């Protein structure tokens, strides 16, 4: 057994015993109440899931196993001195629950390098789609084609004991994460770079290799990819992509099927697709105003127009967060360090100064502050990654780290099939009448 797998098993055994005791003693305690409004309004605020890898605080933002993004930027191993964290380290932290050493991180990099081979039929499946297909559709088709490689599906068909589900799940998770950069880069080069592909570099880390295979050799772009892959990885369990992956996995669909389900959710404009929508919206604003350097007054008018047209301002608002997303702030700091004079990046910062008071004045929005998607596109455009329809694929590669570490835990903790109760409005009316 590999060393990380062994450590995971030990941690999972200990957690299982702890949870068993916890439930024995406190299993009947109430953790919350549910109002009628909540079941009609997206279950907002209902605690109904366990997700071990990260926890979202409405004011402070995300913490991965207790560590905030700035703390991780200080404590996770990096590829270059004082550089951005290596996402391999974050995956280790989410999976094992402890900060990794440099050696642990190198080990994860090596394992993913070794497991990164993508079979030819996956590329053929992607090639069968028209070139106009959205990159997220190509991506999910690629992941689905890769499902032929699932150890979990094979072991289950043979007849595996419940106690051992975690084992092939773990192997599928490592294989799948290892292969995603190749699939993502293949889609990028196929759709936007004349189908001219770049072979992986066996010496590079996971995110650095993604940048390389996409055709970006600038070291600061590689750093951006390392930061990007770290900050988009997980946002506790109830967001659409995490929840969908977990839900589908609860039916014992293998990690390929479960992850693909989650990524179909990430492809929605209110979730991960918001990153492309932000840049599209800014480009449309620039076109309409005839300038690539709009003033705050011009931005204000454009925002009001967007709202009057019954549309959302992409990149702003959040179902849980009530402050500026620390993922936005981390990207802003990257911008200040690497490209302080970039016009588009400065426009993003001007939008940040303009939008919150306008949204606040609507009186109905719970969070007028920017989320992760408000910033990411402008940084990518700076390096020449202008094809914004591709952005959500980058989010998807990163999100694999969180949702798949979680899937390992779901199977190791023996979580059952998920099946909440639903009601009809007639049933609600009968209940209100006391029938
Ligand atoms: N612009 C305009 N109106 C907004 C808005 C925005 N950015 N955000 C919320 N509102 C509106 C809602 O549409 C809703 O209006 P309604 O009552 O007329 O239907 C009202 O304000 C209350 O919504 P609220 O409770 O604050 O927000 P929700 O929890 O329902 O939704 C999202 C949260 C994120 C979906 C919402 O703020 C939104 O649509 N934002 C724009 C899209 C976006 O940036 N999504 C990415 C989110 C995230 F970071 C990610 O998953 O990647």
Can you walk me through this structure?
It is a single chain. Helix 6 runs antiparallel to helix 7 (135-146), helix 9 (166-192) runs parallel beside helix 10 and helix 11 (219-231) packs antiparallel against helix 16. The protein is mainly alpha-helical and 435 residues long. It contains 20 helices and three strands. The longest helix is centred in the middle third of the chain and has 27 residues, at 166-192. A three-stranded antiparallel sheet has the order 1-2-3. The protein has two domains: 1-270 and 399-435, Citrate Synthase, domain 1 (Orthogonal Bundle), CATH 1.10.580; 274-382, Orthogonal Bundle (Cytochrome p450-Terp, domain 2), CATH 1.10.230.10. Alpha-fluoro-carboxymethyldethia coenzyme a complex (FCX) binds at residues 44, 239, 270-272, 274, 307, 312-319, 359, 364-367, 371-373.
Write the layout of secondary structure elements.
Elements: H1 3-26, H2 36-40, E1 54-57, E2 61-64, E3 67-68, H3 69-75, H4 87-96, H5 102-114, H6 120-127, H7 135-146, H8 151-158, H9 166-192, H10 206-214, H11 219-231, H12 240-250, H13 255-266, H14 274-289, H15 296-308, H16 326-338, H17 343-362, H18 373-382, H19 391-412, H20 425-432
Antiparallel strand pairs: 1-2, 2-3
Helix pairs in contact: 4-19, 5-9, 6-7, 6-9, 7-9, 7-13, 9-10, 9-19, 10-11, 11-16, 11-19, 12-13, 12-19, 13-19, 14-18, 15-17, 16-18, 17-18
The protein binds alpha-fluoro-carboxymethyldethia coenzyme a complex.
Enzyme class: transferase
Pathway: Carbohydrate metabolism; tricarboxylic acid cycle; isocitrate from oxaloacetate: step 1/2
Protein name: citrate synthase (unknown stereospecificity)
């Amino acid at each position: 057994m590999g060393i990380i797998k062994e450590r995971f098993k030990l941690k999972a055994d200990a957690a299982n015993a702890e949870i068993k005791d916890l439930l024995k003693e406190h299993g009947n305690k109430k953790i919350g109440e549910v109002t009628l409004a909540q079941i009609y309004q997206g279950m907002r605020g209902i605690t109904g899931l366990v997700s071990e890898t990260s926890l979202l605080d409405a004011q402070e933002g995300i913490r991965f196993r207790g560590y905030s993004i700035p703390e991780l930027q200080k404590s996770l191993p990096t590829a270059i001195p004082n550089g951005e964290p290596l996402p391999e380290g974050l995956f280790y932290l989410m999976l094992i629950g402890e900060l990794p050493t440099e050696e642990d991180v190198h080990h994860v990099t090596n394992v993913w390098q070794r497991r990164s081979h993508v079979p030819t039929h996956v590329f053929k499946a992607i090639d069968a789609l028209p070139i106009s297909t959205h990159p997220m559709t190509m991506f999910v088709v690629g992941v689905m084609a890769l499902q032929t490689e699932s150890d979990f599906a094979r072991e289950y068909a043979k007849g595996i004991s419940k106690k051992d589900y975690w084992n092939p799940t773990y192997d599928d998770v490592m294989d799948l994460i290892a292969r995603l950069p190749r699939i993502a880069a293949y889609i990028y080069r196929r759709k936007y770079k004349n189908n001219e592909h770049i072979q992986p570099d066996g010496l590079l880390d996971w995110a650095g290799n993604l940048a390389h295979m996409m055709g970006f050799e600038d070291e600061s772009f590689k750093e951006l990819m390392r930061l990007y892959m770290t900050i988009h990885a997980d946002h506790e369990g109830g967001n659409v992509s995490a929840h969908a992956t977990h839900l589908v996995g609860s039916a014992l669909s293998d990690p390929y099927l479960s992850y693909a389900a989650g990524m179909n959710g990430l492809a929605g404009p209110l979730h991960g697709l918001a990153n492309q929508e932000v840049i599209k919206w800014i480009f449309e604003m620039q076109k309409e105003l005839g300038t690539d350097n709009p003033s705050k007054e011009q931005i204000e008018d454009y925002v009001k127009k967007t709202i009057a047209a019954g549309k959302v301002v992409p990149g702003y608002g959040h179902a849980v967060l009530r402050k500026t997303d620390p993922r936005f702030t981390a990207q802003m700091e990257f911008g200040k360090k690497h490209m302080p004079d970039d016009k588009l990046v400065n426009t993003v910062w001007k939008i940040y100064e303009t939008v919150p008071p306008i949204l606040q004045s609507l009186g109905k929005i719970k969070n007028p502050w920017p989320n992760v998607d408000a910033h990411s596109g402008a940084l990518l455009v700076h390096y020449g990654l202008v094809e914004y329809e591709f952005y959500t694929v980058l989010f998807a590669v990163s999100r694999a780290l969180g949702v798949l570490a979680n899937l390992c835990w779901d199977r190791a903790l023996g979580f059952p099939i998920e099946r909440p109760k639903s009601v009809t409005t007639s049933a609600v009316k009968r209940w209100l009448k006391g029938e």
